[in-house]
């Protein structure tokens, strides 16, 4: 057994456990904080982390078991699954940068549709999400505060849009509300933190490439050993 191969697989499994744990913790403690999207109501941070963590943990477990048992099938399965994940991530990244404008337009339209679910029964998560974003980023609405006028059919915004929060402050004059659009504000924040995101992405890709290399190296060694023994 190659220690580096088993170690890489074990780290993958442990990493998956960590992501899964964070997802379960978010679901348990922050369950009311859900997605802002009306088209994908189950696409919350907690659900994404749980699915990703479980999948990564399963792949890491397959690789670790294959390395310990020196099993060709498990090593090959680990290699193919990890390669599939790597190609999927690369494809998503390429499509995202190629269709940024279209994604922007669709995202804004979908978020505006989601505003109509604000404060309605069964949408506590979406309501809390918008309240937190508008309060923390000091913004109001998707494009501007007038987005809320269509929701309420009146010159009104949620209280989380107010410069100084108070009960029913969303009924006051527009001068007492945040003017910045939430979509652009959050987008600028993400762009300012793009370096950290890029470093994380490169580190993830490097770990995956090392995992692929170790898995294929050990697979070849096991095949050669089996051929020699035969």
Brief write-up:
This protein has 230 residues and is mainly α. It has 8 helices and no strands.
Give your account of this protein's structure.
It is a single chain. By secondary structure, this protein is mainly α. It has one domain (9-229). Helix content is 70%, strand content 0%. It contains eight helices and no strands. The protein has helices spanning 3-29, 45-69, 72-98, 100-115, 124-136, 147-152, 182-192, 194-229. α1 (3-29) crosses α8 (194-229), α2 runs antiparallel to α3 (72-98) and α3 (72-98) packs antiparallel against α8. Mean pLDDT is 81; it is low at 1-5. This is Tetraspanin. Its main location: membrane. One of its GO terms (molecular function) is integrin binding. It is a multi-pass membrane protein. Disulfide bonds join 140-161.
Share of residues in strands: under 5%
Number of helices: 8
Largest sheet: none
Structural class: mainly alpha
Total strand count, please?
0
Mean pLDDT metric: 81
Number of domains: 1
- Low-pLDDT parts are 1-5
- Structural shape: elongated
C-alpha end-to-end distance:
19 Å
Please provide the ordered H/E string of secondary-structure elements. HHHHHHHH
Oligomer: single chain
The radius of gyration over CA amounts to 23 Å
Portion of residues within helices: over 70%
Describe the structure using short key phrases.
Tetraspanin_EC2_sf; 8 helices; disordered N terminus; 230 residues; mainly alpha
